[in-house]
UniProtKB/TrEMBL annotation:
<dbReference type="Pfam" id="PF08812">
    <property type="entry name" value="YtxC"/>
</dbReference>
<protein>
    <submittedName>
        <fullName>Putative sporulation protein YtxC</fullName>
    </submittedName>
</protein>
<dbReference type="InterPro" id="IPR014199">
    <property type="entry name" value="Spore_YtxC"/>
</dbReference>
């Protein structure tokens, strides 16, 4: 009868649980696998042996190998991957605190699982990663029946480890950009809180062309260089109107701001971050439905 031995130095609990979990499904199909466990120095070895051939099945060897491969790939993805990410992070980037390391690892995991950038084709999803590892294990078991779990990961899963390293590198880049942005927002908020108020109330109106205008409490347009249509039309480049709006509001120094639009969120979120309690969103009024300046007359 086929026998496969799997050794591990650190993951015996995870491996034991997963092997017996998978075993329960095979028992339902009349396939019996016996698992013996013993110590070999620092190594915990699981001796897995197919004991019963079910009548009518001529691919039991493949089913047996797939059982082992499924259990091992699950342990690698769900239990070892996090430790691998942490090891890569700490070996390449030593400047971060434990809390920052946890944030970066979470960001790297999100990237791996397509929770951030689904356009990044160099990083595959969790299910795809597991399937690829499973196939690598099946190939290995075609020629060998003994395996060191940690050794297999280190020497046979080079591409997988490269994927993890890429996810860490990009998560670190994202983390640094995010922290720089937070610091920038903090400085802006400090400046806004300490500057002298120039306008008690400003209405921010958004037209269909996605341009903005600032109105004072009397409904009069507040002239502002950042939002000047004539100047903007003369500039031969792609402008970020969101940034221009933020600059215009900082220059106008309002005590209160009412936004007469609910989209896009990409501008509302930074406005709330910067101006905090000064910001409110109108639930609906004549300013919310303006198409152009002529309608103000």
């Amino acid at each position: 009868m086929p026998i496969i031995q799997i050794g591990t130095n650190h993951y015996e609990e995870y491996l034991r649980d997963r092997l017996f979990f998978e075993l329960a499904f095979l028992k339902q199909d009349g396939i019996i696998i016996e698992i013996d466990e013993f110590q070999k120095g620092d190594l915990t070895v699981f001796d897995c042996q197919l004991r019963l051939d079910k009548d009518g099945l001529d691919n039991l060897d493949f089913i047996f190998n797939e059982y082992i491969a499924n259990a091992l790939s699950d342990v690698i993805i769900n239990n070892i991957e996090g430790e691998l990410l942490e090891k890569i992070l700490k070996s390449k980037y030593k400047q971060f605190s434990n809390l920052e390391n946890r944030e970066i690892i979470e960001m790297a995991t999100d990237r791996l699982n397509f929770l951030i950038s689904q356009e990044d084709q160099s990083i595959i999803s969790k299910i795809q990663r597991k399937n690829r590892i499973l196939l690598e294990i099946l190939d290995y078991l075609e020629v060998r029946n003994e395996m060191s779990l940690e050794g297999f990961v280190q020497f046979r899963l080079k591409d997988y480890l490269s994927e993890l390293e890429v996810s860490i590198d990009r998560a670190v880049d994202d983390f640094i950009v995010e922290k720089e942005y937070e610091e920038f927002i903090h400085l802006l908020k400090y400046f806004i809180d300490t500057q002298e108020t120039k306008n008690e109330l400003i209405h921010v109106v958004k037209f269909k062309n996605d341009h903005f205008k600032l109105l004072n409490e009397d409904g009069m347009v507040i002239e502002n260089t950042y939002l000047d249509e004539n100047l903007l039309s003369m500039v031969d480049c792609d402008l970020d109107y969101d940034d221009l709006l933020i600059s215009a509001l900082i220059t106008a120094a309002p005590e209160l701001i009412i936004l007469h639009f609910k989209e896009p969120v990409s501008i509302i979120k930074p406005l709330k971050n910067i101006f905090a309690d000064k910001i409110s969103i109108c639930l609906g009024c004549e300013y919310c439905n303006l198409n152009n300046l002529n309608e103000l007359d």
